[in-house]
From TrEMBL, chains A, B:
Keyword Transmembrane helix: no
Protein name in UniProt: LacI family transcriptional regulator
Single Gene Ontology MF annotation: transcription cis-regulatory region binding
Source superkingdom: Bacteria
Keywords, sorted A to Z: DNA-binding, Transcription, Transcription regulation
InterPro entries, per database record: HTH_LacI, LacI/GalR-like_sensor, Lambda_DNA-bd_dom_sf, Peripla_BP_I
Species of the source: Lentzea guizhouensis
A family per Pfam: Peripla_BP_3
Length: 330, 330
DNA sequence: GTGAAAGCGCTAACAA
DNA sequence: TTGTTAGCGCTTTCAC
């Protein structure tokens, strides 16, 4: 195994100098720096993670706490995961997987044994039960999601309220006066996930503000449910010319059902989705995307800032981005 | 921070004794063991991961290399992930996430800096490009999947060939003489994923062996593709009374299309699926499940065996399990 | 059955 | 700008 001593000998410097070249914790003259770098390259040196963690009391590992609840959109989770890993690597950190079932005890263990420097916790609910543990540990942590009380925490989320409003604004500006809202499954609303309620709130108040008629309904991830909901919406809102869909799992079915009801999309009913870009792209639907990449990256950046002793804001809301797509579908 | 010295002092023993209680690397009298355990509990001691890694040259971390290819079934991936994490925890190990995009260099880095003791690599293809790196590193590793050449490796997989055959056997024993096969998307077959081909091979040779008429077709994850494929199958195999489906993404559509073609399921066409149990359960379909939990667990067990210096077999195939479900759907 | 002590490879004072 | 050195907290040999 190649150690820092080998590199130091090879470069003709002291071990500490090699360390300083690596960490940047003290200026090193350009000449030595280059020589050390060359030796590192040549010998294929990689600092021993454990030794480094022991000496610096920094593991350079982020714990990523996954959601394992029913109803989460797996593709979105995966996009978060990859974006967190990518962002972490940019800061020379690795990512340890913490499954939800490890629970509070797991978080405590990881913190105490110094396996992770901090955590990014995904899919945090309004009244998440893991929050007390996080506060108790007092470790750096960033939450993806939006708990009811953000005091003393650091949370990152899409501004879902703005997203809901954005859809209405866009449609109202196109002249629509009667807009439906097809949301997530009722379980998601019951569960206090926050993002669903906030989108709906943004939608509703924007509709109110603009004097647009509106009705909102949840839809279960089954064809028959979507069929029923679309039917109900058309009945409740007979002059409905636009529909905002915040339920990527059933988006395809919504389009089918509208057609089955004799409505052309977008000619009779304009559909705006709140969903990943790729899906909207495929269906050629105007949409507000869930910027998983940006959220994950921001979360990691905030965590790194905390690790460097900086204060971070309790809540960061990323602005929604509406992409207009006008092509015909299929 | 609570260290081993604190525990030793509190229990009135030497630090090494505490270590031996923890690792079991040397017998400790029952009395001391209990006392030490109590002190550990009382003080809330967790051995420092980095220190342990440095002293023992074992990080107690498994690298889990994720697939990021198009066409992977995310729910299945997640089940693997959770089962690997759960199994790892049972061996007092944690799991580090390695995304595919980190590539060979990433694997090399993690091995050299001793961040991980070994790897579990998911979704390994027949001619996977990561295999050379793995061999080069000579580190403990277990592959989930089935590369063309398993020599010198340790692979775990479902016996897909047996799975394909099992479906035919089951249906033939029920008297079916003409059986269709609706497989994964053509991209999956083109990509040499192995599992898809082997299932098909098992299906085909079992049909041949039993003198059953059969036709196999791939299906893309779009409704129109499924519609076309089901139509073609019914045309090519006019007396088809059974269908084996190896494509969980479109399974629901297959049932719809069969009904749209005027075939009752299972009265006119019996459908057997190769898919996760939960899905088959929901659709009340006889099925062979992908035992993600068992595969993940076995992979971890084999990895742990390797870490303990044991030899592990190059290929472990888990037997398929066919669950008969006879209820009506919906 | 237990203790003392020498590292593991690195970082970060302290010293020059 | 660089070198020397004392730990970081644990494991493990050696000694009893």
């Amino acid at each position: 195994m190649v150690t820092i001593v080998d590199v130091a000998r090879h470069a003709g410097v002291a071990p500490s100098t090699v360390s300083y070249v690596l960490t940047g914790n003290r200026p090193v003259s350009a000449g030595t720096r280059v020589r050390v770098r060359e030796s590192i390259q040549l010998l294929g040196y990689h600092p021993h993670a454990g030794a480094r963690a022991l000496a610096s009391s920094r593991s350079n590992v982020i714990g990523l706490v996954l959601p394992l609840r029913e109803g989460v959109q797996l593709p979105v989770v995966m996009r978060f995961v990859t974006s967190v890993v990518t962002a972490a690597r940019r800061h020379d950190m690795d990512v340890l997987l913490v499954t939800a079932d490890q629970g509070a005890a797991g978080l405590r263990r990881l913190a105490h044994c110094a396996r992770v420097d901090g955590c990014v916790m995904m899919d945090v609910g309004l009244d998440d039960e893991r929050l007390p543990v996080l506060r108790e540990l007092g470790r750096p942590a960033v939450l993806l999601g939006h708990p009811a009380a953000v005091k003393g925490l650091t949370c990152v989320d899409l501004d879902f309220e703005a997203a809901g409003a954005r859809c209405v604004d866009h449609l109202a500006e196109l002249g629509h006066r009667s807009i439906g809202f097809l949301g997530a499954s009722s379980a998601v609303y019951a569960r206090n996930t926050g993002f669903a309620q906030r989108t709906l709130a943004g939608f509703s108040s924007a509709a109110m503000r603009r004097g647009v008629a509106s009705t909102a309904m949840p839809a279960e991830p089954r064809y028959d449910s979507v069929q029923a909901v679309v039917g109900t919406l058309l009945r409740e809102l007979p002059r409905m010319t636009a529909l905002v869909v915040h339920n990527e799992a059933v988006l395809g079915w919504v389009l089918e059902c509208l057609r089955a009801e004799g409505r052309r999309v977008p000619d009779d009913v304009a559909v705006v989705a709140i969903c990943p870009d790729e899906l909207a792209e495929r269906l050629r639907l105007t949409s507000v995307q869930l910027p998983a990449e940006a959220l994950g990256r921001r979360a990691v950046e905030l965590l790194v800032a905390q690790l460097n002793g900086q204060q971070t804001p309790p809540l960061t809301l990323l602005e929604p981005n509406l992409s207009v797509r006008t092509g015909p579908h299929r």
